[in-house]
Design brief:
The complex is a heterodimer of chains A (247) and B (262). With 247 residues, chain A is an alpha+beta fold. Helix content of chain A is 39%, strand content 11%. Chain A contains 10 helices and 7 strands. A 5-stranded mixed beta sheet of chain A has the order 2-1-5-3-4. Chain B has 262 residues and is mostly helical. The termini of chain B are far apart. Chain B is elongated. The chains are: A alpha+beta (247), B mainly alpha (262). The interface between A and B is large, with 58 and 49 residues. The structure holds protoporphyrin IX containing FE, iron/sulfur cluster and FE2/S2 (inorganic) cluster (FES).
């Protein structure tokens, strides 16, 4: 396979940046998207050029580190997949592929396609935890939790913090991420104790980081590799109302 | 866990969005009331004219309705200002935009609520200038019964009454205020094609605004519980079709089938 790439290149945070065209030939359709970029980078390195910087770690869809905005969609054309789980067979031979970094003022570009997502870390630090020691695995079984709550908490807990929701949202809102974290803990007795502080702290931090607000477009849910549901945002809103009414 | 210092309630994005939802859903309720009132325009003959004009009197004079109408004006103002503040704030969250966008996973309406709302606002201003302002402050025709008598606000045709300063007088005795003929203003307006066109076309952005807004309002208020939400979604789509269609049909009938109203 052969593809034509338009890749966002930006030397550093304050560089203006621009698109650079590359042609990559001899691609195996079963290569992952990141492996295709590895092939290109090897060539760039051997030519003495600066390789394209992009984030990746596990390359098995579980860490949330990778994240490229491919042809107008975070994590590319495959539903429920992180960028590392997208393969070249999902593209046409001879296709032009535009690759951009996540765009959000709260996620400033560090270099090329790498953005600084530490805003998410600070949101977690603001309240995405429980302060008490919840014990070992057997202690978990000592508190019965309705199946429905447990399943929904688990679903919310699958958020890998990749930021595709922010990248997809027209408001660069982090509501789906915050909602996943709040809902995960709000549905469990261990999380109820600090539910009020958590939701207020995390939302305040989200706003301070410069993310936008939610307008319920649903783009985040559609693009989330872990299918985190908008239901969690409704729950987040309920938690917010409860927290504000408790004063 | 310590509670971080909180900004004022109205600085919170979620609080602002909740205000948006409350005012928006209140406006949805208003649309239902307004449409049911307006459909009286389609009752044929003198009875229809009398009923509609009496309804207009009721709507401007009954104290409770007056209070509700002030809540309504306030809701519109809050909804619009809040929309402006939120839209600007949300734009600022991404000052460098993508070169390629797909809009995947979101509807046209959801991505363009601000523009749709602005179109509704423009219509609203025209509409209020057209009927509401005229009714309250402008030159109005007065209701005349088939026998050619002026009609009081209670709906009684008063034989031999003359009109002075908006009141009916018989032999120098004030018989109370005369009924304004809003129906006639509507009829005249809807006999002009361009006005009919504006009224009908403006229902399209309203439909799209509601198609997203109705269900979005419930989601914003956290009113989303399992399967019930798909009912809300369906109800929202029906609402977004039926309400604008109901409004649009009135100018269309006035323009194309005026004989049906005689
Ligand atoms: C009859 C008039 C109107 C009705 C019934 C209405 C209804 C609604 C509803 C139900 C919502 C959803 C609230 C939420 O998601 O929380 C909404 C949102 C919104 N409305 Fe309206 N609205 C009307 C007029 C307007 C006007 C005149 C404007 C602007 C100038 C406007 C701009 C907006 C915006 C920007 C949103 C937020 C959309 C979003 O979050 O994506 N609306 N409206
Ligand atoms: S909610 Fe989904 S898209 Fe957003 S950070 Fe979590 S896994 Fe990624
Ligand atoms: S590299 Fe870990 S999810 Fe893609």
């Amino acid at each position: 396979m052969k593809v034509y790439l338009k890749v966002w290149r930006q030397r550093h945070a304050r560089d203006a940046g621009r698109f650079v065209d590359y042609t990559v030939d001899g691609i195996n359709p079963d290569m992952s998207f990141l492996e295709m970029l590895d092939v290109l980078n090897n060539r760039l390195i051997s030519q003495g050029e600066d390789p394209i910087a992009f984030d990746h770690d596990c390359r098995e869809g579980i860490c949330g580190t990778c994240g490229l905005y491919i042809n107008g969609r975070p994590h590319g054309p495959v539903a429920r997949a992180t960028t590392c789980q997208v393969h070249m067979r999902h593209f046409k031979d001879g296709e032009t592929i535009v690759i951009e970094p996540w765009r959000a003022d709260a996620f400033p570009v560090i270099k090329d396609l790498v953005v600084d997502r530490s805003a998410f870390d600070r949101i977690i630090q603001a309240g995405g935890f429980v302060s008490v020691n919840t014990g070992q695995a057997p202690d978990g079984n000592a508190i019965p939790i309705p199946k429905e709550d447990a399943s929904k908490a688990f679903d919310a807990a699958t958020c890998i913090g990749c930021g595709a929701c922010v990248a997809a949202c027209k408001n660069a809102s982090a509501m789906l991420f915050v909602a996943a974290k709040v809902a995960h803990l709000a549905r469990l007795p261990q999380g109820r104790i600090e539910a009020r502080e958590r939701v207020l702290n995390m939302l305040t931090q989200m706003e301070e980081e410069g993310f936008g607000g939610c307008t319920n477009t649903g783009a985040c849910e559609a693009e989330c590799p872990k299918a985190i549901s908008l239901e969690n945002i409704a729950l987040l809103n309920r938690e917010f109302i409860k927290a504000k009414c408790a004063l | 866990m310590e509670l971080k210092p909180q900004h004022g309630l109205l600085k919170s994005l979620v609080a602002k969005k909740i205000l948006m939802a409350l005012t928006g859903l209140f406006l949805c309720l208003f649309l239902v009331a307004h449409l049911s009132g307006n459909l009286q325009l389609l009752i044929p003959g003198y009875n229809g004219r009398l009923q509609f004009n009496s309804y207009a009197v009721f709507m401007t004079q009954f104290p409770l309705i007056k209070i509700i109408s002030y809540v309504l004006y306030l809701s519109i103002i809050i909804h619009v200002l809040d929309a402006l503040v939120l839209t600007i704030r949300n734009r600022r969250a991404r000052t460098v935009d993508y070169a390629v966008k797909s809009g995947y996973g979101s509807t046209f309406a959801s991505r363009n609520m601000g523009i749709l709302g602005t179109l509704i606002l423009i219509f609203l201003v025209l509409h209020l200038a057209n009927f509401w302002y005229k009714y309250k402050f402008g030159e109005m025709p007065y209701m005349v019964s088939p026998e050619g008598y002026f009609v009081s606000q209670k709906g009684e045709a008063i034989a031999g009454a003359v009109l002075r300063d908006g009141h009916l007088w018989v032999n120098g005795v004030d018989k109370g205020p005369a009924m304004k003929d809003l129906y006639e203003v509507v009829r005249l307006a809807f006999s002009q094609l361009w006005i009919v066109a504006i009224y009908v076309l403006s229902m399209i952005p309203l439909g799209y605004h509601l198609a997203h807004g109705f269900q979005s309002g419930f989601q914003t208020l956290g009113l989303r519980f399992g399967r019930a939400f798909s009912l809300i979604r369906t109800a929202g789509l029906l609402f977004a079709i039926i309400i604008p269609l109901g409004f649009a049909i009135i100018p269309l009938i006035f323009y194309f089938f005026p004989e049906k109203l005689n």
